[in-house]
Amino acid sequence: MPAIPAASQMLGRSLVSMLALMAATVGIAADAWNTFPGGDGPGKGKQVVLISGDEEYRSEEALTQLAKILATRHGFGCTVLYAIDPETGEIAPNEQKNIPGLEALREAELMVIATRFRNLPDDQMKEIDDYLKSGRPVIGMRTATHAFNLAKDSPYAHYSFNYKGEKKDWAQGFGRLVLGETWISHHGHHKHESTRGLIAPGAAEYPILRGIKDGDIWGPTDVYGVRLPLPGDSQPLVLGQVLTGMEPDAPPVEGVQEGAKNKLAKNDPMMPVAWVKTYAINGGPAGRVFTTTMGSSTDLESAGVRRLLVNACYWAVGLEDAISASSDVGIVGEFRPTMYGFRKDKTAGIAPTDLR
Predict the structure, then answer these.
(1) 105, 102, 299, 290: which is closest to 195 by C-alpha?
(2) What are phi and psi of 240, to 5 degrees?
């Protein structure tokens, strides 16, 4: 039998240690999350933690598929976390207070987050807070602009999407400070007007857009409203063209539609749907951020969306030179994403193991 390379042995021991730490700390079985060890590829040795938890956009489906692509085709080691019903162990999109396994952030080199209005307990929020204070990179998807809605007496209340407290630099919470925007509005007509991605002026040569051209990015989710210009050193990469229908070849909306709430011409100006920036917590080290207001599970059916997210992961961890315009971003395994919409049931009826 051929000898196992020392680097592979070290990676395996690191993964086992991380899983043991997580299980021991939270006191539950490791089947509350999914772990995908990295194969060969430029990301080998890099650990990514992907945090799902929303009622509407099937983040548990989207992030699991993204993790499979990153691990299988690009070498990243990935751990996917879920909102879990503590009684049944099932994925529970409406469970606001429990995402087990956040201890994995201690060893992570990238956090990808797609939560919505979570009110997590202090011990779980501390793991996220410690990660951000270290200045490590963040990727935020769709509802991550309004990732948290914590109790006012929580020591992490400043993470809330609508925070107006004494910490002035945290106004409007994690979304605004770290990602660049909080929840503002549906700019496109929700469930009626889909999104086509157009390269932002001056951004065509940015590494994250390698292999992507106008129209490659499309999703059935609508464009979110943001305030222009985006704050700080934010640089828009992709603009969201609002389409008249729910197909990739639908024509763009022209002018202001009758009955529009915001009275803005929907495509003049267009809203950014992907941008980069940096963040720093309390004057600490600066970290890279990529934010996209796309990212439902159905959006990942678009190869352009998948390439955008995979490229962003490379960039976030400093591997921009390894981004290839022709890299494989194909779906791994069976992927039949559920159309988005609010869910009333306590659980999704599946466990993390069902998504492996």
Answers:
(1) 299
(2) -100, 110
Each residue of 16-49: pLDDT tens digit?
A: 445 444 443 333 456 899 999 998 999 999 999 9
Give the number of other Cβ atoms within 10 Å of residue 295's Cβ.
29
Q: What distance in Å separates the CA atoms of residue 206 and residue 46, rounded to the nearest whole number?
A: 22
CA dihedral (33, 181, 200, 191) positive or negative:
positive
pLDDT in tens, 114-158: 999 999 999 999 999 999 999 999 999 999 999 999 999 999 999
Contact 311, 207 (CB under 8 A): yes
Could you give the maximum distance between any two Cα atoms of the chain, in Å? 71
Distances (CA, A) of 188 to 100, 183, 263, 298: 34, 14, 12, 17
Please report, for the chain, the start and end positions of each structural domain, with discontinuous segments joined by +. Answer: 6-185+275-355
Per-residue pLDDT reduced to its tens digit, 156-191:
999 999 999 999 999 999 999 999 999 999 999 999
DSSP percent split of the chain into helix, strand, coil, nearest 5: 30, 20, 55
CB contact set of 183 (below 8 Å; sequence gap of 6+): 143, 145, 146, 161, 175
Angle at 131 between CA 27 and CA 150, to 5 degrees: 75
Q: Note the pLDDT tens digit of each residue in 212-236.
A: 999 999 999 999 999 999 999 999 9
Angle between the N-to-C axes of helices 303-316 and 59-74, in degrees from 0 to 180, rounded to the nearest 10: 70
Q: DSSP per residue over 125-150, as a string?
A: HHHHHHHHHTT--EEEEGGGGG-B--
End-to-end Cα separation, the chain, in angstroms? 29
With 60 as the cut, is the pLDDT of residue 304 above it? yes
CB 184 within 8 A of CB 227: yes
Q: Are 231 and 176 in contact (CB under 8 A)?
A: yes
